[in-house]
Records
---
Amino acid sequence: MRFQTVFVAIVVAFALVIGAFLINRQRPKVETEQPSAALVRASGRCAECHYRQQYSVVHEYEMSEHARRGVNCLDCHQPTSSQKGKEHHGFIITTQITPGNCRACHYAVYDEFLRSRHAAAAWAAIYGAKGLSAEQVAYGEKYNPGYVNRPPHPFTTLEGASAMTSGCDQCHSVGRPNSDGTIGNCTACHTRHTSSVAIARLPHTCGQCHLGPDHSQMEIYTESRHGLLFDAQRRLLNLEADPLKLTTRDMFVPTCATCHMSGINGLKMTHDPGERLSYWLADAISRKRPDYIHAQANMKEVCNQCHTAPLIDRVYDQAEKVVEATNQKVQAATDLINGLRKDGVLTGKPFTQPIDFVYFDYWHYDGRTAKHGAFMGGADFVQWHGNYPLVAKMVELQSMAAELRAAHAHTH
Ligand code: HEC
Ligand code: HEC
Ligand code: HEC
Ligand code: HEC
Ligand code: HEC
Ligand code: HEC
Ligand code: HEC
Ligand code: HEC
């Protein structure tokens, strides 16, 4: 019947239109929404192959703000003027991506990052000034004097190259020098293809590196009231909130990023966490930073978005007393070691005698942990992972020193 044929034809045509629409929706957004023909070609063709080869790469990218804003694969993967290009299926790409590939669009962020200790100082902590250009050393020294122009860490030779590559480098590469003259690695916090602020705001993202006995920030946070509430209320937080509009309605519980980086309720956001730190807590003896007053005011202003001044001042008063007391304890241990060296009882390079390791653990593990715990709500870390081992190890140091002196007197 004629009517039936027409009906079938209409149904088939409609199905085809719907089908085409559905298929089109499955394609990478950039391909369908990009205004420029060249860009459509670029992302569409990269994605077409890589969707099959590495689904996860394309999928992570498709969920990103970049995909929504039409930033495509080639925007990141094309070589900058200081990078080597490589022919790749009709495109010229770079396979090593650095902040140089983000800088053109995020200049201010890179600039701030470069001043921070996540940049050159992080690398110099292992390898010293080696590998950094004279300009990079000068720039780093301007913002972090004494922490960039320094010798390589003794462990680089003691532990050997493979331990550096698979150990230290993995964390300290956050500030690695790249062959194109840039420094660092933005994807340490943002990941490669999600380019996500939500991920950067998660405690575990910082906790990839900020953990363990020498910098137990992750463990301290987990046991703190803040960490407890984060676990309990995580799904109620708006981790995706636009950084420029972030308020305490989105993040009513702080994560590492909230206190150290975010611009909550209109405060200044920063990629230099040093802007809010008033002490050098990682050092054996913690001194006040040059901008102590300003930096402390910055952090207290963050606390003040959720707390009142008496609580904040109480935390700081108590923590500063822990810093002072720890400094005295570490000074006493340092005097003991220096005395042994001065009297010729302890000779040779550092890290060749058992007492060197006890002394190193004394300030590097226990002293630091006590100070960090005091500022970030970790009572157990001030006490059982901090002050208790400080007491026990002082006894050990004194007993080792006495033995060394006795043996020395015997042979001289
Ligand atoms: C015709 C298919 C095809 C196209 C088009 C294509 N790729 Fe690839 N690409 C591949 C294959 C296959 C590999 C994996 C090679 C391997 O496993 O050794 C690869 C590898 C890569 C790598 C890793 C290279 C390395 O040496 O580390 C990157 C990065 C990459 N592609 C990015 C892109 C980008 C960006 C585009 C678009 C500008 C693109 N690809 C277009 C097929 C393609
Ligand atoms: C925001 C910048 C950015 C965008 C956009 C981007 N990439 Fe990447 N991509 C990176 C970074 C960074 C790496 C890691 C490179 C390195 O190791 O130096 C990477 C690595 C890769 C790799 C190697 C992955 C591996 O684990 O071996 C492939 C393949 C790749 N990208 C394909 C793509 C494709 C396809 C697109 C678009 C759908 C895309 N990228 C979009 C930044 C980007
Ligand atoms: C071609 C320009 C361009 C390049 C290249 C680029 N971005 Fe972006 N990026 C944007 C735009 C546009 C936005 C959205 C507006 C904004 O938040 O600044 C954005 C947003 C972001 C965001 C915030 C995402 C969010 O959820 O709010 C992060 C993080 C980011 N980019 C990191 C990177 C990193 C890391 C690289 C290099 C590996 C990079 N971008 C390369 C243009 C770019
Ligand atoms: C798990 C990640 C990780 C590994 C592995 C690691 N570090 Fe660190 N390191 C950090 C973090 C995070 C800090 C910051 C501590 C702080 O400020 O409390 C740090 C701080 C330091 C500091 C003190 C800061 C400074 O600039 O003086 C030195 C020195 C240092 N690391 C050297 C090394 C060396 C050498 C190795 C390998 C033997 C190493 N680190 C391995 C994460 C790591
Ligand atoms: C130590 C971790 C870390 C590193 C390294 C890092 N970021 Fe971020 N970034 C963050 C956090 C956390 C936020 C979100 C702050 C907030 O809560 O609003 C952010 C926000 C951003 C934003 C969105 C805000 C804006 O200004 O538009 C961009 C873009 C960005 N980062 C780019 C970069 C680039 C480019 C690099 C490398 C030069 C980089 N980030 C390195 C942690 C990091
Ligand atoms: C890839 C590893 C890595 C990640 C991820 C990382 N950091 Fe760091 N961070 C380091 C290292 C290494 C240092 C010590 C650098 C040095 O030698 O001074 C450091 C130092 C710091 C400092 C001390 C800065 C100063 O001025 O003394 C703060 C605060 C900090 N990080 C906070 C964060 C926060 C918050 C995050 C997550 C948003 C984060 N870090 C993610 C490796 C990392
Ligand atoms: C409630 C706010 C808050 C939270 C949450 C928080 N911190 Fe802190 N953090 C502080 C304060 C306050 C200090 C000490 C500031 C000073 O020196 O004046 C500090 C010190 C540090 C330091 C010591 C830097 C140095 O001088 O060596 C590092 C590193 C650090 N925090 C990383 C982290 C990481 C990683 C997390 C999450 C796992 C985190 N913080 C969570 C407030 C916070
Ligand atoms: C984004 C909001 C937010 C920020 C920022 C914040 N806190 Fe909190 N804080 C909380 C919440 C919520 C609690 C849980 C209060 C409760 O138990 O009801 C809390 C609990 C505490 C407690 C435990 C109170 C008690 O008596 O049990 C201390 C101490 C504390 N915060 C100190 C600080 C300090 C110091 C800062 C800044 C370095 C800070 N907080 C930043 C939200 C915040």
Note: Residues 19-35 have pLDDT under 50 and may be disordered.
---
Amino acid sequence: MQFWIGVKNVKTKEEFVMKELQKKVEYFFIDKESELYESAIDLRYREFYEKFNRTRESIFDEIEDKSLKIVACIDNKVIGHARLFIDNSIGEITQVVVEQNYRSLNIGANIVKKLIEEGKKQSVEKICLDARIYAIDFYRKLGFKTNGEIFESKKSGLPHIRMEVYL
Ligand SMILES: CC(C)(COP(=O)(O)OP(=O)(O)OC[C@H]1O[C@@H](n2cnc3c(N)ncnc32)[C@H](O)[C@@H]1OP(=O)(O)O)[C@@H](O)C(=O)NCCC(=O)NCCS
């Protein structure tokens, strides 16, 4: 049965499934005490550490405890994460990741938007980040502009570029 036919603004089964998933996504600001924290660490480890032979311990860098952390969840499963560190009215976004199977559902954009909103509340002047080259357009759509030359990340060896947005 083509159960999605007649649903408003939905033309295909894929679109229907996508919209149903999007409805289920919840966003939470968390700290280390949260029951979601370990799952967020797992997700970050898989994307940013394991692939580059970095230890799980190196997740706990000098800004980890001081950063505001946001997760996206479906049915209490962490499927997205990012963090914002604020110092002297300048924000730094790091560790933006969405679980592979849940990409292209606007989850990454929503996570970053929520951190930008939070930055505004805290009178942050600008937010910076080091973007992987392949993600430049993702950040451009959120208002970020490139600043400087492409460089190789010391941690992953991947080409990156500095980006920033004034709030
Ligand atoms: C980059 C990442 C966080 C994007 O998350 P996502 O949830 O798939 O992205 P969204 O669905 O929110 O995309 C929002 C918009 O950006 C676009 N976009 C997303 N990723 C993109 C990419 N790699 N290149 C170009 N455009 C991209 C989407 O098409 C969408 O455009 P639209 O609004 O016109 O439809 C995700 O691909 C990821 O986790 N990648 C691996 C980790 C990583 O590289 N993180 C960034 C490190 S700097």
Note: The two ends are 48 Å apart (CA to CA).
